[in-house]
Amino acid sequence: MNRKLVAFCFITFTTAVFLPAPTQAQQKSEIDEKQPEREVIFRSPIRYVVTYNEIETQLNERRIWVLMDPAKFNLRSLTGIVTFLKEKYPQPNDLDITIHTSLETIETPEEMDLYRDSSDSRFAKVRDKYRRAWFHRDSSGLETLNYTSRLNPYRERMVVLRTPPGK
What we know:
The protein is of the alpha+beta class.
């Protein structure tokens, strides 16, 4: 083999093997230069999903259903969700928010259509299995939050969040 070719291969190999690899900080710096940094403006500390949000025109009342992580079910999280939603939807004044911790307790659109005019207890069988909460704001300004405080034996608590002005 040609001596010049062997020397070139050796130098190329040793340079490639023995040069220090870029650190993670250097790699991140190169990526940051290529892509503009995205700033996260807001991230809710409480993770939840609104599964239903409609205005009942006959009653002039907004109804909202929320699904949240059962592990995060506590008074602080519940009041946080309620506070955000009541500020987001100030109208109409009458507002009902139901907070669920399981899909088992939420009606599908088909179930809603099927049972719309009925007052059956189709979800009574899961009542004692999952925690739930109910917020209600009426036209006088009274705001109450009822929530499952215990499952076995089943217990609920009610908190008055706001009383009507002048009362």
